[in-house]
Amino acid sequence: MFLGKVVGTVWSTKKVDNLKSLRFLIVHPINLKKDPNTDVVVVADRVGAGVGETVICAYGRAARLAVGNEDCSIEAAVVGIVDSLETTPEFRGSQPDLADRLGVETKPGEKA
User: Fold this and answer.
1) Which architecture, in CATH terms, is 2-81?
2) Going by C-beta distance under 8 Å and a sequence separation of 6 or more, which residues neighbour residue 65?
């Protein structure tokens, strides 16, 4: 699984039958250790995430199980929307811009 920021929506009126009930988002994976990843991933979304939200995404079989169809033609899916994160003070200290990259509200010394 990975954390990512929703940066857009994909609209597709023509797609294979097993994707017809799915909504797709463009997610920018968040690299917790260094500069942001420059790649984006198209993910299926059944939880209702929106642009600007931080999400938890799964790959492969876990993604297909999350959308309820092991035979569907997806590789990644949103499995949760992040409300907040909590990390150790040591990790926060080594990542001063973590809260900005994750897009979550934090208080010094509490959550990041």
Assistant:
1) Beta Barrel (2.40)
2) none
Residues of the chain with CATH 2.40.50.220: 2-81
Query: Digits of tens for pLDDT over the chain (112 positions)?
Result: 999 999 999 999 899 999 988 999 999 998 766 565 678 999 999 999 999 999 999 999 999 999 999 999 999 999 999 988 777 777 666 666 666 666 665 555 554 4
CB 53 within 8 A of CB 78: no
Neighbouring residues of 112: CB distance < 8 A, sequence distance ≥ 6: 85, 86, 87, 91, 92, 95, 98, 99, 102, 104, 106
Q: How far apart are CA 112 and CA 48, in angstroms?
A: 23
105: how many CB neighbours lie within 10 A of its CB? 9
